[in-house]
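Write out a sequence, fold above all:
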Amino acid sequence: MDTIRLGRTGLHATSVSFGALPLQRVPMNDAVKILRRAHEGGINFFDTARLYSDSEDKLGAGLAHVRTQIIIATKTKGGSAQTMAEDLETSLRTLKTDYIDLWQIHNPAGVPLPDDGSGVYEAMQAARQSGKVRFIGISSHLTGNAVQAVESGLYDTVQFPFSVLSSGEELRLPALCQTADVGCIAMKALAGGLVRNVPAAFAFMRRHPNVVPIWGVQRLEELEEFLALEANPPPWDAALAAAAKQERNELSGDFCRGCGYCLPCPADIPIPMLARMILLLGRSPWKTYYTPQAREKYNRGADCSHCGACASRCPYHLDTPRLIETNYRFYQDFLKEKEIAGEI
């Protein structure tokens, strides 16, 4: 498998890399099988975070026996030296390793700087000096923060939502990273699963040779699709360019990317799914959302109290309660129409 130099780290990550956020929704045994198949298929870069519930545990269980053959990236949301140190020790234990290749600050409100009073950047440096961390980076959903992090010269890598939907300033980021010799990692390469044309998304990413895409994987068949595309990369031709344009047109404006930062919900509403139900029902097999288990989950949308907790945590500054209300109403009307039509 081809590799991509991750900026000045000198690490070479595989051109198909593994985003482990979805693994938190997969049983342990299945997650281990997926991870080991990924490694057998040639993938060497695995990205996770403390925030992803048991994702680190699953990486540790699945890949500890090949630790020297892989690159592990994880993240901390800790806002102080003490909480970051605690996060690091927990990550080392759950990942079953004594060092982290890339330790990233997880979507901070601003870019941590030396002597800014938070102690965050100093904690990152201390971890590196101790040998427990090899390189440091930052993840951000905000273009301005990502650009500032690159231009600061303080971070070895930047992770940012970069996909076939990207436009404007976002498209500048790979070249900016290239010039600064900063590793560029693309999360949300399928916009949280909403991009339907995977070959177009894949071909688009290959047009940016310094970008390491971390494809979120939840099922073995998804992994096999990425491995097959890597074995026979589709050319960026007129047909795929047109498909990409259609994806951008259909997913323009504000929409939920399904990142999950809005959780937990006090009413136990599955916000990342319900808040984009209109898109999901039009872009995936709708009967998936009709099962008794699915209806029980999504009917919790009626319990939204508009407390605002989800909106306060949304990195895209969406009006999440409004999205829940709108998508819940659409979901109910959609299923009612299907029942009237005799389709269910």
Notes: The first strand starts at residue 3 and ends at 5. The beta strands are 3-5, 12-14, 17-19, 45-47, 71-76, 100-106, 133-139, 157-161, 183-187, 211-216. Residues 78 and 84 are 5 Å apart (CA to CA).
